[in-house]
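Reagents: none. Just compute today. histidine kinase.
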Amino acid sequence: MCSQSAALSMVPLTPSERLQAVTEALAAARSRKDVFGIVLTPALQALDAVAGAVLLVDGGGRHLTLAATQGHEEDAQTLWQDGSLEDSLPAGAALTRREPLFFEHEGDLLRAYPHLEDRTGDVAPVATAVLPMFLDERPLGVIVLDFKEPHEFTAEEQRFLRILAAQCAIALGRVELLTDLQRQVQERTRKIEADAYAQEAFVAFTEAVGTETDVLTLAELAIAVLSLRFPDSSSAYSQLDEGLWKLGAHSSDLHDHPRLLQRLRSGLPRDTPVFAQALSTRAPVFVNAWAAQGQIEHTEAYGTLANYPLVLAGEVRAILSLGLKRQQQWAERDQAVFRAVGRSLSLALERTEYTRLLQARSEEEARRSQVLRAFAELSRDLVLDTDPYMLIRRTQEAVLDLLPAGASMYFEPEDGFWRLKSQVGQAPAETARALQDDCAPFEAARDLLMPYQSGVAHYRDEHDPQADQQPGGAGSAGGMAVLPVMVGGATRGVLGFALHTAQRWSGEDRAVLETVGRQLTLALERAEQTHRLAVQKAELEARNKALEAFEEWSRDLTLDAAPFALISRALDLLYTLLSLDAALYYELEGERWQVRSMRGEYGSPGLQQAHEAGLPHATTDNLRIAFETGEPYYQDVYDTATDGLAGHMEHVSATAMLPLRTLRGVRGILGLGKFSRSGWTSIERTTLETVRRSLELALDRADQMLELAQERSALKTRTDELADANEELEAFSYSVSHDLRTPVRHVLNFNQLLRRQLGEGLDTKSTRYLTVVDEAAGRMNTLIDAMLNLSRTSRLPLRLGPVDLGALVEAVRAELEADVLDRRVEWRIHPLPRIDGDEDTLRQVVTNLLDNALKYTRTREVAQIEVSADERSHEWVVSVRDNGVGFDPRYANKLFGVFQRLHRTEDFEGTGVGLANVRRIVARHNGKVWASGTPGAGATFSFTLPKPG
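Predicted 3D structure written out:
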């Protein structure tokens, strides 16, 4: 439109010709700005006015807003300003009278409005024209023309100005209609798309549910549809149970969030706001910016959340939930999809509920009587018994009476296998074969592993041919149920029921089994508590005795600083306190363990001779394991194959090996033995390890001064060795990187030859395989280049000279901006100093940091990157800040390591070498580099450079 306005002023025109040109130009105007430019230019030129302005009436009809000016300096104070629509001012008066106002001579305007200059703060023009604009009797605003000389408005000029104002009003009305029409078209298009998308989801779910009547299966199907429609999301189906919303079904991705999954399984309070709102309104609830609300812990990863209440028989029975991870606002079509799936699930659940009620009514009375009798008998038995395995067996017998023919088996994990501890009934033949050794590998038995790890009962309605190798009902002909057996909040084992025929486990069946499981848990906990009280009484007496002896020994530790004397006193204490048969102290001399101190006796001449000769380190497993791990090694039942002394150790019942760890490593090992008693009680273990830790502290105190002196003398040697090793490592990296290029080149060449050889016979899968090889070789070349660059940075000498950091940053920014022309990037480059350094390598530093800032702000609508410098006494601190994705500050120390990355490659490309290169370059300039950041809130990378000397 600017070219059209300019065209109106190229040659002298009559008022009529100007009006014709204005009319043609206004026909093409598409915005208010276009209209103002077209109208003001001819008006000023036709009458030799010095300035013009347009003021528009706001939507409320009470205020005028300055919309455009021409002839005034930018941001200059003018007479015509925003203000209320009052009759005392010229603009308001012209609109009220519905006629133009002309002030032709100097002073006319001020005589009519004497306070005008005081109210606006500007000097009144010599002459002025105020032209009102109306559209369909509605006031739009005024056009104002100012003159620096007196001006008598002829009839032709007044007619020209009235027509110009009318054409401007019409053009403004047409722009408003066009804008409103575009908005209506966009809204209608969005609604059509949302309706179509919702209909598509509704049809897909309707086809999926078919005639399914199982509630959880229906919920899982709904969750599957939502997972397909919203890939980066989580879905859940929750039911109200005893005042808590408990998880019934969920999308598989929740297994990647174990803390959230456990929280949902434990149940959310009924009054959780997002659930309470859905419960009270019985309408879908959509929440934007979910993470900021903090309603449910461990849900910070979600941007939005929605709940759909599922109403059955007039009550909200369950809620379908959907959380989107990378979206902060709910789109209209996404809401429509969720509503469609929720409505479909509601209808399917209603159908299922009615079917279930009809079936349940005919079976309820008979089943109830049977269950009540069984529960009464079981409850009596569980109260009378205290033996854990007898309690489990009585539970198995009671439950089998309620189920079709089959067997019940109870398993506990031992040494990586499932051990069958109790069985009642005849198991199906396939199950018997799978358990012929009474055990199965722990990880392989999925039917046992799932309830054991999750704490949730596992059910299977019928035989699964693909699970034949799994125990606990796997491979059985019919239904199967496996319950976790919990004691003290931890899973002790699993109780399985394997049936000969298929069994559809109803909600009532599951409730009965899980209630029995809870009763068994209470009975086992009561039995364990009874046993624990008896053990605690015995241990209390031993603890008091141990405390008295330990107090005396601890006092002695502060009086003696000789290491060997400290160890001898510890042997005396343990030998007497724990009533041991043997207590020895070993030290490793060469490849043999030698006894340096002993209390008690060996027990056999052969064992004494073996110790006097020294025990070989390689074959004496109990000493070797304690030495290598640095942790106590207990054998509650001594294994004669442990240390190659089987012919001399038959009399030993239990051993304990306690390594003494000092600042220099494992100094030696305390070996303790029992000849007539097996096992180490918790009190004994606590005593042993307390004495060990106290003795280690005393030995450390004795050795500390000696080690400090040794460390000082060795520091220079270690520093020199580290420098040599670093130089050798860089040379090795450089050599390896060059040597790797040849095989990578061969891979690419032979891959290309293979493509040519196969020609048109190359199928899709083979093409994909070859492409994967090409891409992998390409990534290898990238890593090789990065390694070479890293090595080259350390090897090449620095060429020091004056470097203008400001000019360097501007040059790098210009290069990088060429690759991000499609993005909005706000740069804030503060004044930067001139320093002494190597310009080529410092360019690499700046390029790496600015490129990273651009990369990790890719997800922001407007990227903000700031480069600044802070002056210190002897150095400059240069910082690069961004508003990108940031990082977890706990892992900041990994950022500058080679191949260390804190973001996934599929999210942000890179080799993990750039920041390592930055650190090396800055270190070679006698500076240091560090980073700080917050997830989702950007990052700051800083480095120091010395000031010129």
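The domain at 702-795 is CATH 1.10.287 (Helix Hairpins).
Action item: order primers for follow-up constructs.
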